[in-house]
């Protein structure tokens, strides 16, 4: 019976996700304020990602007034440097700056680079996003408009994962659209708004950054994006979820690399949102419904429960994946959703079995969200 109760909780969670998707879609039709301040885009780099030059170019093709792009690398021989130089040649009219960040100020090199890039930023509004993010040409206009309200301290946005042909990459992409973002929209409903941020877009003012002590307090955290949003929210500012959706091109993950990446994310979230992450056990309705069928020895009620779970689960995947994110891959890979949920439960269990994470080829101990390098 416990498995049936847990599956029922999962159905209730799916209904909350659907309500969150409906509320977000309604928000997308609201008229944006006519506010377009000058902005400095900060893009810390390390190595290259799939379609990275296409992602760089999308930031130079914005239908927007005044902005600049500042790239930062920690290695003077980083393979991303020639691509930035190519971008500078292609867009000579755009202020594109490359900074070699020679100091290592903490275990999170991304934040370390941001600390060294910030003095070169000219403007009072800042935008940080990951190197592999590709954006539409109205991206800046939509992301910066909410700052017309002085109470807004940070704007973030949802994203689609463009999968490579491998199974691991497809599982990652379907997880983004059908698992992760439904959770974000459900949290927005339960918590009366967003109180964290996503690395796909972190737009904020210098005032809100100063209110949390700058980048320095984040330099040893793995989930720096989450911490930035949480701290700005706790400082009394509002965090907004922009209606714009961006793309990220996923690597051709092997299954082992996919599992490793998900385990790192799971352990990071476990430390960042302890109670919320614990509550995820109630969201894995498909595994619990299958267990109910086995324990109930195929009783009619267990099959009805499984059918209800599957219908509601696929409805969430389509509502968020297609209706909200416009992710065409969801239709093709819908059959992977039950497998992704089974793996998700294993990852949730595995996240509580240790504190070691692999990140950018290095091993770290994760404790209370902070990273300590593993020494041998």
What is the succession of H and E elements? Answer: HEHEHEHEEHEHEHHEHHHHHHEEE
Number of strands: 11
The strand line-up of the biggest sheet is 3-2-1-4-7-6-8-5
- The backbone outline, from C-alpha atoms, is globular
End-to-end Cα distance, whole Å, is 47 Å
Helix content: 40-55%
Task: Let me know the largest β-sheet.
Answer: 8 strands, mixed
Strand residues, percent: 15-25%
The gyration radius over C-alpha positions equals 21 Å
Task: Please state the structural category.
Answer: alpha/beta
User: pLDDT below 50 for ≥5 consecutive residues: which ranges?
Assistant: none
Number of helices: 14
Mean pLDDT: 94
Explain what the structure shows.
- This protein is an alpha/beta fold.
- The chain is built from 14 helices and 11 strands.
- The protein has an 8-stranded mixed sheet, with helices on both faces. A 3-stranded antiparallel sheet has the order 9-10-11, with helices on one face.
- The radius of gyration is 21 Å and the shape is globular.
- 48% of the residues lie in helices and 17% in strands.
- α1 (2-28) packs parallel to α12 (300-324) and α6 (167-190) packs across α12 (300-324).
Concise synopsis of the structure shown:
Helices cover 48% and strands 17% of the residues. By secondary structure, the chain is α/β, with parallel strands linked by helices.
Secondary-structure topology with pairs:
Layout: H1 2-28, E1 39-44, H2 52-60, E2 67-73, H3 81-90, E3 96-100, H4 109-117, E4 125-128, E5 133-134, H5 139-144, E6 152-162, H6 167-190, E7 202-205, H7 206-211, H8 224-234, E8 238-249, H9 255-272, H10 274-278, H11 285-295, H12 300-324, H13 329-332, H14 337-350, E9 356-359, E10 362-367, E11 370-373
Parallel strand pairs: 1-2, 1-4, 2-3, 6-8
Antiparallel strand pairs: 4-7, 5-8, 6-7, 9-10, 10-11
Helix pairs in contact: 1-6, 1-11, 1-12, 6-9, 6-12, 6-14, 9-14, 11-12
């Amino acid at each position: 019976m416990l498995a049936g109760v847990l599956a029922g909780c999962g159905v209730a969670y799916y209904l909350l996700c659907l309500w969150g998707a409906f509320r977000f879609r309604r928000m997308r039709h609201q008229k944006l304020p006519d506010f377009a301040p000058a902005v400095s885009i900060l893009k810390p780099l390390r190595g290259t990602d799939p379609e990275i030059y296409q992602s760089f170019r999308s930031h130079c093709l914005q239908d927007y007034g005044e902005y600049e792009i500042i790239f930062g690398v920690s290695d003077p021989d980083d393979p991303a440097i020639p691509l930035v130089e190519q971008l500078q040649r292609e867009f000579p009219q755009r202020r594109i700056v490359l900074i070699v960040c020679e100091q290592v100020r903490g275990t999170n090199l991304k934040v370390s680079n941001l600390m060294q890039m910030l003095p070169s930023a000219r403007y009072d509004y800042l935008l940080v996003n990951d190197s592999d993010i590709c954006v539409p040409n109205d991206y800046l206009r939509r992301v910066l408009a909410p700052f017309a309200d002085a109470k807004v301290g940070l704007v973030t946005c949802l994203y689609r994962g463009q999968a490579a042909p491998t199974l691991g990459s497809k599982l990652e992409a379907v997880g983004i659209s059908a698992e992760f973002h439904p959770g974000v929209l459900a949290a927005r409903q339960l918590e009366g708004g967003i109180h964290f941020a996503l690395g796909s877009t972190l737009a904020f003012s210098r005032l809100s950054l100063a209110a949390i002590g700058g980048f320095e307090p984040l330099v040893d955290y793995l989930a720096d994006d989450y911490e930035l949003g949480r701290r700005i929210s706790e400082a009394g500012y509002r965090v907004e979820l922009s209606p714009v959706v961006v793309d990220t091109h996923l690597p051709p993950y092997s299954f082992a690399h996919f599992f490793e990446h998900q385990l790192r994310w799971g352990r990071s979230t476990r430390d960042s949102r302890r109670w919320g992450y614990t509550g995820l056990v109630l969201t894995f309705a498909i595994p619990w419904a299958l267990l109910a069928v086995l324990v109930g020895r195929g009783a009619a009620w267990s099959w009805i429960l499984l059918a209800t779970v599957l219908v509601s689960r696929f409805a969430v995947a389509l509502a968020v994946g297609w209706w909200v994110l416009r992710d065409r891959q969801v239709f093709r890979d819908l059959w992977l959703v039950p497998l992704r949920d089974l793996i998700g439960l294993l990852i949730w269990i595995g996240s509580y079995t240790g504190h070691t994470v692999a990140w950018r080829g290095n091993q770290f101990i994760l404790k209370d969200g902070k990273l300590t390098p593993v020494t041998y």
